[in-house]
């Protein structure tokens, strides 16, 4: 189980990194723990209440997915995660699923932080290079958490370059059980959805982690990318699933007419 110390690290560690050396000496970050006489009431509230709420909100979503997949088994395949900063959701996914479901876990990430921000995605919270976790560190965090190395794969690169037809052929014909889209940006979400189309099966859960960013504007962010994706592929059918203050999940109830064609194409290629 992910500890509150891990959650604190996500919130305060970036501040610690920017602090001058004398201030850093007042902090201890061993195993993600923060102890400091300088913690204000606001910082303690962020640590103990706000960050804990974010964690619990997301964890309820993951446990709901676990119950759905277990009840409707067999739903086999990949847990595919797009955006894996600090391995927080990857660890939560493992904790929530592996006792019930025999899935493989794939993290798709630049491991270099956010790309250059396009005009459509401009917002104060986003900047190029932000949310960076190096690939080796990500893997170390996951393995230390108990995820077997042979059940975990990383795909490094910005999505417009890394999500190639060759990679799709390599991963198919296995489908996705869960697709977790934590791309933050419209420009990043568009290629992710197109790549994932052929991995859909009946029962695939697709989750948008930043559904209510950009003030919930349907013409921006993940909401716009999702709307346009569904307009391009009207044969695909989805139903709303779990939603909370920031995330929204959907169930694929019909993967369209392309599933058999993809299977045949993959078979021919092999």
Explain the overall architecture.
InterPro entries: SAM-dependent_MTases_sf, TylF_MeTrfase. The model is unreliable at 28-34 (pLDDT under 50). The protein has 270 residues and is of the alpha/beta class. Helix content is 43%, strand content 15%. It has helices spanning 4-18, 21-24, 41-71, 88-97, 135-145, 159-162, 165-171, 186-196, 221-232, 258-269, and strands at 78-82, 104-109, 152-156, 176-181, 205-208, 237-243, 248-254. It has two domains: 1-39, no CATH class; 53-269, Rossmann fold.
Supply database-style keywords:
Rossmann fold; globular; alpha/beta; 270 residues
Short synopsis of the structure:
This protein is α/β, with parallel strands linked by helices and 270 residues long. It has helices at residues 4-18, 21-24, 41-71, 88-97, 135-145, 159-162, 165-171, 186-196, 221-232, 258-269; strands spanning 78-82, 104-109, 152-156, 176-181, 205-208, 237-243, 248-254. The protein has a 7-stranded mixed beta sheet, with helices on both faces.
């Amino acid at each position: 189980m992910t500890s509150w110390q891990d959650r604190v690290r996500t919130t305060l560690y970036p501040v610690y990194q920017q602090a001058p050396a004398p201030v850093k000496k007042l902090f201890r970050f061993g195993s993600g723990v923060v102890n400091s006489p300088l913690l204000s009431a606001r910082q303690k509230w962020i640590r103990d209440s706000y960050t804990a709420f974010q964690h619990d909100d997301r964890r309820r979503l993951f446990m709901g997915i676990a119950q759905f997949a277990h009840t409707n088994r067999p739903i086999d395949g990949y847990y595919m995660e797009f955006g894996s900063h600090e391995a927080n959701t990857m660890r939560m996914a493992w904790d929530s699923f592996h006792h019930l479901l025999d899935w493989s876990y794939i993290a798709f990430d630049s491991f270099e932080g956010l790309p250059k921000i396009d005009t459509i995605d401009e917002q104060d919270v986003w900047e190029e290079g932000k949310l960076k976790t190096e690939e080796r560190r990500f893997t170390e965090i996951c393995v230390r958490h108990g995820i077997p190395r042979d059940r975990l794969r990383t795909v490094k690169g910005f999505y417009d370059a890394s999500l190639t037809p060759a990679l799709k052929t390599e991963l198919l014909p296995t489908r996705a059980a869960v697709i977790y889209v934590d791309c933050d940006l419209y420009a990043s979400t568009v290629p992710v959805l197109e790549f994932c189309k052929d991995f859909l099966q009946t029962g695939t859960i697709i989750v948008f982690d930043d559904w209510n960013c950009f003030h919930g504007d349907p013409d921006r962010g993940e909401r716009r990318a999702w709307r346009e994706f569904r307009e391009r592929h009207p044969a695909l059918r989805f139903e709303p699933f779990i939603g909370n203050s920031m995330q929204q999940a959907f169930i694929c109830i019909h993967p369209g007419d392309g599933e058999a064609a993809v299977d045949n194409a993959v078979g021919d290629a092999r």
